[in-house]
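Two proteins follow. First one:
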Amino acid sequence: MKGYISPVPFEELEKIRNDFWSSRIEGNPQIWEILHMICNDNSLTNEDINSYMKESCIVTYKGCINVTYDNKGYLYEIPNYCINDPLEYEEFKEKAPLIKENIEIKVRCFNNEENIKINNYQLIKDLKVNIKNNDGFKKKYILDNMRLFFGGKELLDNKEIWSYNIQNDSVVQMLATPLKIKIGENKNLKLKVLSGITLDNDEEMDKKEHENDEADNLQETFTEQNKLLIKVNK
């Protein structure tokens, strides 16, 4: 098969490959598992591969594993980037900017936007640290597992800011979980809702349980009285 040049870095290529293999729903799942193994296990010899193909009744189109069929006629197409590693990575040809400079990036999450200052030579993981230290975001989101996106690409931790062509006033999209409830650390827990309402677990839960018990008792009394009235009327 012809070689190719990858337009994305190794880490992103691996993610694209994993997304491809995990999203296969057409055809036979077992056939996909075998094809996945053949394409990823470099320890397999040609004899091993031919044996797996024969036992699973997998037939190639013109001797190439990019397109195969099973014995029921299902078609299995595999892109070249899921079979071979690239000859080279195009991104490595990029030239770094001559000037290191401090820039201000707009980080947007849902309807919230905050300005974050950072140097264009710092890493994406440094940008995430700055975001975690931002008071506006800390009060609204769980930031431990945040994901950042720019220009349709997810930003990888070990890449420098400039490598994604992020400049002053660029808008970076953030994916994070909204923070709705905070839980105290002591045993007498308090639930703090963003609206400002504070409930004490011990007192409020006992109060609610008592109210529920009273409602149940009233319902039982009402039911018994109805039964008695029906019996008298008869």
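Second one, unrelated to the first:
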Amino acid sequence: MSKSKKSKRSLAKQPQQIQQTQAQVQQDAIVKKAVGVIMQEFSGPLPPPQILEQYNAIIPNGAERIMVMAEAQSEHRRGLETTVINTDSRNSFLGVIFGFILGLTTIIVGTIVVLKGYTWPGTIFGTAGLVGLVSVFVYGTKERRKEREAKAKNK
């Protein structure tokens, strides 16, 4: 092929390429417009009223069903919190009772051992019980203070 024929062919292809490029630009613009999304966020157990209305349009009594579900979940959560608080309170009380019984028992056994004539073993045993009792109450007091301070910071 001669140079003149090649240049004519390349000139003939250029308008078609330009048309394809323009069509591609238009198609990209349409795609970009279609990608633009409206995003809404909400926090909390219930969506805003406008969205509830849309649920009613799609599902019969949709908003009512959502409200019932939210109320049931809230009631369930409160019930769990009450159970946890009651259980923690009971466990704390039982811990104090059993710790006191254990400490008192070691002191009494230590005293009995001393009275039987084994002075050093009885003293060590009784002292260990007394130190255990005191340390449990001191530790418990410090932990409660830390919890109160942490709650005060969170408020």
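SUMMARY FIELD: Helices lie at 3-35, 49-58, 62-115, 119-154. The first helix runs from residue 3 to 35.
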